[in-house]
């Protein structure tokens, strides 16, 4: 997109978000930074429409941003500043006292968000980490994956995360099969402990098998400089393979290396699963819960004293939300709720 196209697009989206009406070329010609004729702006708008960023809802010359256009605006153009002085004072007045029980504080947060933004508020309260009944990993591309968690109480939770580089879909399926076999009502944190213990056990077995090869001078440990992974370099391979016992040990070591790598991948997957987080601004059909109503959701998680996500606060409204104002309000509210939750747990 050219600089002129970017400015026309930004001005058009800002005008649409303010009025909710299609924006015409004459309106934009009065607001762009350089002197540009309405005819030139119409040509730019036509190019943006061909890119799928704008749409013509009526026979008039006015345009509105599409869902893809709003997504581009929010991700790449929107400038989010600090919370306004008035909004900050209102948030702190509503939540800053910190008195009452946690449900009361969260109720205040919801009421305050609804009043400040003139939208519907969303508040997810903390819950204890539930045991997992089933887990699945789904590859969404080279750098995105989805984990589906089914808890013992029947709840289903989806989390998007960035998988380790080079982890294949088949490796993810193997990881899910292994984890489902060891679940037995464990939480994610407990499963991480099981996998960590398995890594230690496999590593000890590997060290024991490799010890006499190293003592004989037929092998040496080396560390991969890129990933920090261990390698066993075998010297005089032809002589080594003449001994049946050594050959069997070498094959066993190879198998242990493969198994250790799988366990390390499992540990990394579990760590990413616990920290996985979705997109914070959902526009239109991106949010399946509100897709039919054409609404947007701005949501921000809040954390406890251990920096663990335990809940979220958000605002639901039309897709022409004032994102630049609402995003910092939701973020600041989440930070304040997190501080209140942390201070209560310490007390």
From TrEMBL:
<feature type="domain" description="Heat-inducible transcription repressor HrcA C-terminal">
    <location>
        <begin position="105"/>
        <end position="327"/>
    </location>
</feature>
<dbReference type="GO" id="GO:0045892">
    <property type="term" value="P:negative regulation of DNA-templated transcription"/>
</dbReference>
<comment type="function">
    <text>Negative regulator of class I heat shock genes (grpE-dnaK-dnaJ and groELS operons). Prevents heat-shock induction of these operons.</text>
</comment>
<dbReference type="InterPro" id="IPR023120">
    <property type="entry name" value="WHTH_transcript_rep_HrcA_IDD"/>
</dbReference>
<dbReference type="Pfam" id="PF03444">
    <property type="entry name" value="WHD_HrcA"/>
</dbReference>
<feature type="domain" description="Winged helix-turn-helix transcription repressor HrcA DNA-binding">
    <location>
        <begin position="3"/>
        <end position="66"/>
    </location>
</feature>
<dbReference type="InterPro" id="IPR002571">
    <property type="entry name" value="HrcA"/>
</dbReference>
<dbReference type="InterPro" id="IPR021153">
    <property type="entry name" value="HrcA_C"/>
</dbReference>
<dbReference type="InterPro" id="IPR036388">
    <property type="entry name" value="WH-like_DNA-bd_sf"/>
</dbReference>
<keyword id="KW-0678">Repressor</keyword>
<keyword id="KW-0805">Transcription regulation</keyword>
<dbReference type="Pfam" id="PF01628">
    <property type="entry name" value="HrcA"/>
</dbReference>
<dbReference type="GO" id="GO:0003677">
    <property type="term" value="F:DNA binding"/>
</dbReference>
<protein>
    <recommendedName>
        <fullName>Heat-inducible transcription repressor HrcA</fullName>
    </recommendedName>
</protein>
<dbReference type="InterPro" id="IPR036390">
    <property type="entry name" value="WH_DNA-bd_sf"/>
</dbReference>
<keyword id="KW-0346">Stress response</keyword>
<keyword id="KW-0804">Transcription</keyword>
<dbReference type="InterPro" id="IPR029016">
    <property type="entry name" value="GAF-like_dom_sf"/>
</dbReference>
<comment type="similarity">
    <text>Belongs to the HrcA family.</text>
</comment>
<dbReference type="InterPro" id="IPR005104">
    <property type="entry name" value="WHTH_HrcA_DNA-bd"/>
</dbReference>
